[in-house]
């Protein structure tokens, strides 16, 4: 069951491969992320990104009231399909594991450029920790607005980085 989802899209005057090269370059994610929450990213193994690549991100997460929380998130690339789709599942360092928190960039050719769809889905699963239950039950007030505006800004950043 999906407890939260959001999708935003834009058209960028660059090829799908050029856009894919940007969104799949993990070293660019601190610059790309519109939330400005990602401080650093490392990957394992080093080298080319592919399905199964592990991502380690140090983040300062912002809540709806402006408060922040430093955390580490480990992710795994689950879709690496150039130049169409790049997706990863995040496991943030929380008191209990979330069932699924997945992010996507889906790309398609459109009028000489690229239609970019940026999506997220969160399935909290059967969480038991009181803090996470509170976050899930109040996600709209606590975090959803920050996620939405960050994703919209991510697409603005992507357009700027692509030079389009």
What features would you highlight for this structure?
164 residues, Alpha-D-Glucose-1,6-Bisphosphate, Chain A, domain 4, seven-stranded antiparallel sheet, 42% strand
Structure description:
With 164 residues, the protein is α+β, with helices and mostly antiparallel strands. The protein has a single domain, classed as START domain (Alpha-D-Glucose-1,6-Bisphosphate, Chain A, domain 4, 2-Layer Sandwich), CATH 3.30.530. Helices cover 27% and strands 42% of the residues. It is built from four helices and seven strands, in the order βααββββββαα. A seven-stranded antiparallel β-sheet has the order 1-7-6-5-4-3-2. Helix 3 crosses helix 4. The longest helix has 24 residues.
Can you give me a brief rundown of this structure?
With 164 residues, the chain is an alpha+beta fold. Helix content is 27%, strand content 42%.
Note the topology:
Blueprint: E1 4-12, H1 16-23, H2 29-32, E2 38-44, E3 54-62, E4 68-81, E5 85-92, E6 100-110, E7 113-123, H3 130-137, H4 139-162
Antiparallel strand pairs: 1-7, 2-3, 3-4, 4-5, 5-6, 6-7
Helix pairs in contact: 3-4
């Amino acid at each position: 069951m999906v407890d939260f989802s959001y999708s935003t899209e834009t058209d960028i005057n660059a090829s799908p491969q050029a856009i894919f090269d940007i969104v799949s370059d993990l070293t660019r994610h601190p610059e790309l992320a519109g939330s400005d929450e990602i401080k650093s990213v490392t990957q394992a193994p080093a080298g080319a990104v592919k399905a199964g690549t592990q991502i380690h991100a140090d983040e300062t997460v912002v809540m709806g009231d402006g408060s922040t929380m430093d955390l580490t998130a480990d992710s795994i690339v689950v879709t690496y399909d150039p130049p169409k789709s790049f997706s990863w599942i995040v496991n943030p360092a929380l008191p209990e594991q979330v069932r699924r928190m997945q992010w996507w960039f889906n790309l398609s050719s459109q009028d000489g450029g690229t239609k970019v769809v940026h999506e997220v889905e969160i399935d909290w699963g059967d969480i038991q920790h009181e803090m996470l239950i509170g976050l899930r039950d109040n996600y709209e007030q606590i975090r959803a607005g920050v996620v939405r505006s960050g994703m919209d800004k991510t697409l603005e950043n992507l357009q700027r980085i692509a030079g389009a």
